[in-house]
Amino acid sequence: MYGWLQKHIKSRTTSSTQCGKGNIRENSAMPISILSTSSSSSSLLPLTPSEPRQLRNALNSELRWRQKYDVFVCHSSAQTDIEEAIRLVLFLEAVPRSLRCFLWHRDTCPGGAISTEFCQAMQDSHIRALLITPSFVQDDWCNYVMHQALAEGPMSNRMIPLLQNLPHAEYPQEMRFYYYIDLSKNPDHGFSLVYRTVYRYLENLTHNETKSGCDLSDSVCGGDAHKRVK
C-alpha cells in the first residue's frame, strides 16, 4: 500500500510539473493542436539581478491593478491569426512576465453582445495590441475595435500595431502615423518588443504613482517645516 501511494504521488508531481511548463490556464478552451505549436520564447528575456525587483514594482503598482487587463489582443477569426494571438498571449502570460491578457474567444462571456464585450474589455485594458493581417483588414469587428481604440486615445501611446504578412499598400490609412512591430520575419523578437513596450508603460505608471506620493509627502513636510519656522 505504501509503495502504491509513493508511486501515485510521484506520478501526480510529474504531471503537475509538465502542466506548469506549458503555462496554460485551466478551462482556457484553447485547442490542443494550437497550443502545441506555441513558440518556446519564454527564455528570450534573461533578467539582470536588478530587474526582478523593478519588475515586481511595475507589476504591483496600484494603478496597474485598477484595470482588469494589461493587454487587449485584437485579431481576426482566421485560424492563422488565432494561432498567432494565442502564441503571443502564452508568451506574455508566462512567468516572470505574468501579464494579464484578453482574448475574445477565451475571455468573453457566453451570451454577451459582441460590441459590448469588446468595448468593455478595451476600457478595462491598459494596452491594445492589434494583430494586423490581411484577414484583420477585411474583418468588420477588427476595424470596429481599431476605430474605437483610435477614438479613445489617438496619441495616448496605448496602442501597439502588430503587422504580419500584410503588403504595405494594404496597411490601414488610419494607422500610418503609428510605429508598428513587424512579426513577419521574427515573431519571437516581436513578442519581446511587445512585452518591453507594455513593461515600460507599467513602469511609467509606477514612476508617476511614486512621484505623486513623494510630491504629496514633500508638500506635507514643507507645511510642517513652515509652521516650525514660525
UniProtKB/TrEMBL annotation:
GO terms for molecular function: Toll-like receptor 2 binding; Toll-like receptor 4 binding. Signal peptide: none annotated. SUPFAM superfamilies: Toll/Interleukin receptor TIR domain (SSF52200). It comes from Nothobranchius furzeri. PANTHER family: TIRAP (PTHR22662), TOLL_INTERLEUKIN-1 RECEPTOR DOMAIN-CONTAINING ADAPTER PROTEIN (PTHR22662:SF0). Residues 67-202 form the TIR domain. This is TIR domain containing adaptor protein. InterPro entries: TIR_dom, Tol-interleuk_rcpt_adapt_Tirap, Toll_tir_struct_dom_sf. GO terms for cellular component: cytoplasm; plasma membrane. Keywords: Receptor. PROSITE patterns: TIR. One of its GO terms (biological process) is positive regulation of canonical NF-kappaB signal transduction. Pfam families: TIR_2.
